Amino acid sequence: MRKMFVFLCVAGLIAFSASSLFAGGADNKTNWSAEYIRTLNRNAATDSADIVMYNPAGVMKMADGLYGNLSGHYVDKYYNNRINGVDFDQDKASIVPGLFAIYKHDRWAGIFGVSNVVGGGKVEFKDGNATTNLIGVSLIGGANRALAGAGVPSSFFYSGITEQNLDGEQTGLGVNLGGAYKINDIFSLALAARYVSTKRKLNGTVTVSATNPFPGVNNPLTELADVEEDAKGWGGVLGVNISPTEQWNIGIRYDTKVNLDFDQDVNQDTLGILPALGYIDGGERERNLPAILALGVSYQVTPKIRLEPNFTYYLNESAGFDDIAGTPRDESAVDNGFDLGIACEYAFNEKVKGSLGYLYTKTGVDVENMTPELPELDASSIGAGVVWEVNPKLALNFGLGHVFYQSESFVSAATGATIKYEKDINFLAFGIQYKFM
User: Fold this and answer.
1) Is 3 helix (H, G, I), strand (E, B) or coil?
2) Which of 198, 204, 240, 253 lies closest to 224, judged by CA?
3) What is the CATH number of the domain that holds 62?
4) Which has fewest Cβ within 10 Å: 4, 155, 327, 343?
5) How many of the other CB atoms lie within 10 Å of CB of 382?
6) C-alpha angle 36/45/239, rounded to 5°?
7) Residue 244: how many CB atoms within 10 A of its CB?
8) Using CA of residue 105, residue 106, residue 110, residue 116, what is the dihedral sign?
9) Residue 336 contacts residue 364 (beta carbons within 8 Å)
């Protein structure tokens, strides 16, 4: 009877699952530096070492020398899955580091950068979320079908979810290493290799119970899941910088797709349901990092005012994603996305500049296909801050901002529940740059 029961639970998950436990999304990350946090637009910047990842060819506009830049920003993130009016939320914060370096001499430069390029950090849904709710409903359905098939009266059926929680984490370290070359006063080129190493972790519990348990049947019934995935891959970065006049600068960057085949380790699966969700001990799953095409235009309006509009396009549709558990979370369910924004920088004096930036993000993911742990909601972001050039060698950056997400609702075809995804993020950043020579 137990084998039949487990089989029906798994079959129920295959039939009703709307998303995997920890599915990836169209989730390239570009918040790499404090300079970015205070402007939100860096594709045409030429003023700091962080541009090795935003406008790598633009480093040729900087003075000769060796630069080191270290950034860190604190991301206070609140995610909520509202299920039939009940909130299931998390407020685990994240720290995002960034390290950048340039050595420039005459017409050549070496560039190096490292930061988080994929993944949303750690989440802790202490009372569960839409994923655990789905699993709980599926467990109840599968268990009760098994009981009914064994002739057990419905008065003994499992009736509710009595405990649920889910912890998840994904981080993806991206390392860029390459060089830039100045063709002439107008054109510069950059080429870099990119290495990405990413990990995903999942740990969750779902318990279902019967008010009036049938003798000899497990009650409560608990699924304990513990899964890890890791992947490594290589890509490339191509940059072009165009400076037609002293007032205008154009930055163009293309980050290639990075192929990521995730190796899976299932550490715990008490009811054997994880294979139905695409997680097999020793298995492999493809979830590639999409290519990016980025464009920025900088215009020095006056000696004190600089404007920079940006457009960043995420080529999600051609990335290559494996389908999971018969769900629609492959590349056919994700459209290309984009960021569109503008920054304004004002020089108060020779040492201090203030900045204000706006960014609109379209993720390209329909609400029915979003990841409950990290819903890919469209958003508007505002960032602001200052840079203080303490002396010709030392510069300090401060930035802060807020992301306004557009909440989305839908009725789950699996459970019939009305689910609303909400997010709220505040961020604070500090960066230091030093010119060694």
Assistant:
1) helix
2) 204
3) 2.40.160.60
4) 155
5) 15
6) 105
7) 11
8) positive
9) yes
Q: Can you list the pairs that 402-410 forms with residues at least 24 positions away whose Cβ atoms lie under 8 Å?
A: 402/426, 402/427, 403/379, 403/427, 404/379, 404/380, 405/377, 405/378, 405/379, 406/377, 406/378, 406/379, 407/377, 408/367, 408/370, 408/375, 408/377, 409/367, 410/367, 410/368
In degrees and rounded to multiples of 5, residue 54 shows phi and psi of -105, -45
- Give the count of beta carbons closer than 10 Å to the beta carbon of residue 248: 13
pLDDT tens, the chain, 437 aa long: 443 334 334 333 333 333 333 222 367 899 999 999 999 999 999 999 999 999 999 999 999 999 999 999 999 999 999 999 999 999 999 999 999 999 999 999 999 999 999 887 899 999 999 999 998 998 999 999 999 999 999 999 999 999 999 999 888 999 999 999 999 999 999 999 999 999 999 899 999 999 999 998 989 999 999 999 999 999 999 999 999 999 999 999 999 999 999 999 999 999 988 887 788 999 998 889 999 999 999 999 999 999 999 999 999 888 876 644 434 455 567 889 999 999 999 999 999 999 999 999 999 988 988 888 888 999 999 999 999 999 999 999 999 999 999 999 999 988 899 999 999 999 999 999 999 98
How far apart, in whole angstroms, are the C-alpha atoms of residue 320 and residue 233? 14
Q: Tell me how long the chain is.
A: 437
| Residue 234, domain extent | 2-435
